[in-house]
Amino acid sequence: MKTRLLGDREVSALGFGCWAIGGPFSDTDGKPLGWGEVDDDESISAIHRALDLGITFFDTADVYGAGHSERVLGRALGKRRADVVVAGKWGNVFDGDTKVLTGADQTVEYMHRAIRATLTRLGTDYLDLYQLHTAPSVTDAAPLADAAEDMVKEGLILGFAWSTDDPERAASWVGRPGYVAVQHECSVLHDAPEILGLCEQHGLASVDRTPLAMGLLGRRDSSTPATGADIRSAAPEWLRFFADGVPTAEWAGVVDGLRDILTSDGRTLAQGALAWLWARSERTIPIPGFRNVTQAQDNAGALAHGPLRPEQMTEIGRLLRG
Hints:
Layout: E1 3-6, E2 9-12, E3 16-17, H1 40-52, E4 57-59, H2 68-77, E5 85-90, E6 92-95, E7 100-104, H3 108-122, E8 129-132, H4 138-154, E9 160-163, H5 167-172, E10 179-185, H6 193-202, E11 205-209, E12 242-243, E13 246-247, H7 249-262, H8 269-280, E14 284-286, H9 293-300, H10 302-305, H11 310-321
Parallel strand pairs: 3-4, 4-5, 5-8, 8-9, 9-10, 10-11, 11-14
Antiparallel strand pairs: 1-2, 6-7, 12-13
């Protein structure tokens, strides 16, 4: 259970998402899009600890911290780059000096510029997985998939994916050489049966973002409100688990109802949430975020426990149905 397939490559069943270690960035209205201030040395120590604990998959994006996440990850991996699988994303446009997301560019021309900028920031000459990070129409995305296939042939990338919660978009690239994964939201609070079914049917990896519901299924409760440069302090509409920096009463109540099962068998709450995903499908690779060594150890510790048992999954299903 400790490994999963990403295309024809074996990776740790748990990936680490590198959004949080990018540090602050914002939209053009000044609203935060990062997870607050970070200590780069601590981030690097956390990545090193993850490597020591068997994590071989790291997911980042060029827009995280307006390029900063990629630089930190590249520094941390150093000579161990060949030992891991690194996933990146493209499609968003940002100002690296002001750390502002300025828009999106879904042209092939921009895609070629973006991959080379990403490789430079990471300090590598190839990317294992390149993921479209925006939501063009299926028709408009087809040339991007064509270009991704060419990049695979060129050796710039080893495979590609679409980061989307839309089953139609995810299905539109099925059958293309090099299309090996779908990145999508999935957690015990947000199942994704259509995309999981697609992944199982076509042998795609399900790279699960928000597996801990932005911290609600981990270490964040009403006693520690998010402030300042943390996106949860002014949560956008899609971030439905939080309001005014704290979990909503409705979602906190759902988690409380699941807590006993998720924390059974010696697991922490976060470890139980990751265990649900592994039990949900053999294609899942959750990518929880992290900002320090303690969080890295807690997340990686879920591997030792493995997936939830069938009877635990059944009970969780019953509780969620109310």
